[in-house]
Automatic annotation (TrEMBL):
Residues 308-356 are annotated as: Disordered. PROSITE patterns: CN_HYDROLASE (PS50263), NITRIL_CHT_2 (PS00921), PIPLC_X_DOMAIN (PS50007). It comes from the Bacteria. Residues 7-273 form the CN hydrolase domain. It comes from Chelatococcus reniformis. Residues 309-324 have a biased composition (Low complexity). GO terms for molecular function: nitrilase activity. Belongs to the carbon-nitrogen hydrolase superfamily. Nitrilase family. The lineage of its organism: Bacteria, Pseudomonadati, Pseudomonadota, Alphaproteobacteria, Hyphomicrobiales. This is Aliphatic nitrilase. InterPro entries: C-N_Hydrolase (IPR003010), C-N_Hydrolase_sf (IPR036526), Nitrilase (IPR023919), Nitrilase/CN_hydratase_CS (IPR000132), Nitrilases_CHs (IPR044149).
Length: 356
């Protein structure tokens, strides 16, 4: 657990700059300054906020989205690169942990990525959304299990999932089993309608209860002008409204402060990490309330790679990464996990043989 139990956190609900990734980055940096000035030590931004969420893919037929898809490529974020360096510098200057959603460009593909920067500016985690949802499958590639990690930060143990990944109980359990203290949730916002906001609220409150952790959730906002630009047909504009539920939830499933569901703003709250023990004393889903001899999760945490060098494959069960350079920093962690996986575990062996 973190050195102090009291942490001030912030969830940001603002509009992107639909013309420029650099413009959206400026908005991110301004929001960081504002949140830090109010004492926030953790700041969470919406899903793929940089350069912007691909709303166009939700309201336009695929055959009509080519130009906008290519424009997203043009403004997408390379990790590491100038954008991550700018955010890292701000995190280091402000002493703030930052969770930022980006459209990550890795050569010829785009991914829905979540980046966690520690208060010293280091990039502690880069993960990719496991399965893009519905229209998103035309935009992004798939992530892998290597990103299902909880990382230690200056504010505690932080895990992250994007949008409907919260409907995947095994993905959530993977983070729960690593004892996350603060869960950063990200949704696009300004999508589907009011029912989406209700669904988000149910989902994040349930995860807080089940995981016994705090959830800091950020959703994005679109202005009326932006909605009209994305959906010139008025009949489609309702699909780009509602769905905002920027919120901070305690391990007991309650809102720490009233949620933000309309307009732009930064939600600020003080959370007490000691409440985690209070909740888990009653029900610890991955501890005294678990039955691992009956049910357990098997996670393949190897990074996906389209090619493996034969020599390195013989030396290690983990393939060499061919993705963004930031993946290279995670290899030592994967090797350590590989060693741990090699330890005798008769229960897992029995389960696997039974499954076979």
């Amino acid at each position: 657990m973190a050195e102090t139990t009291m942490v001030r956190v912030a969830a940001v609900q603002i509009a992107p700059d639909l013309d420029s990734g650099a413009g959206t980055l400026e908005r991110v940096l301004r929001a960081l300054d504002e949140a830090a000035a109010k004492g926030a030590r953790l700041v969470v931004f919406p899903e793929t906020f940089l350069p912007w969420y691909p709303y166009f893919s939700f309201v336009s037929a695929p055959v009509l989205t080519g130009a906008e898809h290519l424009r997203l490529y043009e403004h997408a974020v390379v990790v590491p690169g100038p954008v991550t360096e700018a955010v890292a510098a701000a995190a280091r200057r402000l002493g703030t942990v930052v969770v930022l959603g980006v459209n990550e460009r890795d050569h010829g593909s785009l991914y829905n990525a979540q980046l966690v920067f520690d208060a010293d500016g280091s990039l502690r985690l880069k993960r990719r959304k496991l399965t893009p949802t519905f229209h998103e499958r035309m935009i992004w590639g798939q992530g892998d299990g290597a990103g299902l990690r909880v990382v230690p930060t200056a504010v505690g143990r932080v895990g992250a999932l994007a949008c409907w990944e919260h409907y995947n109980p095994l993905a959530r359990y993977a983070l729960m089993a690593q004892h996350e203290e603060i869960h950063a949730a990200q949704f696009p916002g300004s999508l589907v309608g009011p029912i989406f906001a209700d669904q988000i609220e149910v989902t994040i409150r349930h995860h807080a209860l089940e995981a016994g952790c705090f959830v800091v959730n950020a959703t994005g906002w679109l202005t009326e002008e932006q909605i009209a630009r994305i959906a010139p047909q008025e009949a489609l504009r309702r699909a780009l409204t509602g769905g905002c539920m920027t919120a901070i939830v305690s391990p007991e499933g309650s809102h720490v402060v009233p949620p933000l569901t309309q307009g732009e703003g930064i939600l600020i709250a003080d959370i007490d990490l000691a409440v985690i023990t209070k909740r888990k004393r009653m029900m610890d889903s991955v501890g005294h309330y678990a039955r691992p001899e009956l049910m357990s999760l098997a996670l393949d945490n190897r990074p996906a790679a389209p090619m493996r060098a034969a020599a390195s494959f013989e030396a290690s069960p983990f393939p060499a990464s061919s993705g963004s350079r930031s993946d290279e920093g995670d290899q030592s962690a994967h090797r350590s996990q590989a060693a741990a996986d090699g330890d005798p575990d008769q229960r897992v062996a029995v389960l696997r043989s039974a499954a076979g």
